[in-house]
Amino acid sequence: MKIGIIETGRPLDGMLEKFGDYPSMFANLLRGADPDLEFRTYHVLDGDLPSDPADCDAWLMTGSRHGVYEDHDWIKPLEEFSRRAAEMGKRQVGICFGHQLYAQAFGGKVVKSDKGWGAGAHTYKITERAPWMVTDDEAVSCIVSHQDQVVETPPGAKVYGGSDFCEAGITTIGDTVMTMQCHPEMSKDFSSDLIDLRRERMGDKVSDAAKESLGKGLQRDVLAQWIVAFLKG
Questions:
Q1: For the chain, what are the domain ranges?
Q2: Domain 2-232 belongs to what topology?
Q3: Tens digits of per-residue pLDDT, 129-188?
Q4: d(Cα 222, Cα 142) in Å, to the nearest integer?
């Protein structure tokens, strides 16, 4: 199975060299659930946009420091691509920015939340079950890093889990799109460095709480299993 990774962002300065890029982080994560997966990366920020949904068996859109409501010349083409892929029955997964772009593309609303920064490890309570949830976890903890949130899900969307901070944490849109606001590809070390880099923007209170939250266990492998199960259909 070949998964097209739509890379919409890059790690902050200094982190790329230490941790690698987002596509490599996702490849490492998902191969833990299926070692035979193949990947092709589309570097959107360099003008390398996917054009034909048939080029890959399924698709995954990464996180980004950009907002889906910003005026970038690649936002609308990605929205159009995601709708065409859905019409063709292609499975798609969106993470963080990807979660928000799919919501916007299918009629939802994304804003910079007045709740402020989410950072560190958050726990999403699972409120609905689906066949692709191949483990019986009632809650999953994972790294988050965002200000923007989906505040209105698209018509036909379903919420499977979230938190008081982010209610629409895990969603589906129709039968072929699944999204997560959290970052299963990110490790505790990655999050710790990111918090340090953003401390001035987030403030000491948020940053200190985010650092403390990294003491909890993460269910990255569980979310990897869910993503792979969904993409395989």
A1: 2-232
A2: Rossmann fold (3.40.50)
A3: 999 999 999 999 999 999 999 999 999 999 999 999 999 999 999 999 999 999 999 999
A4: 10
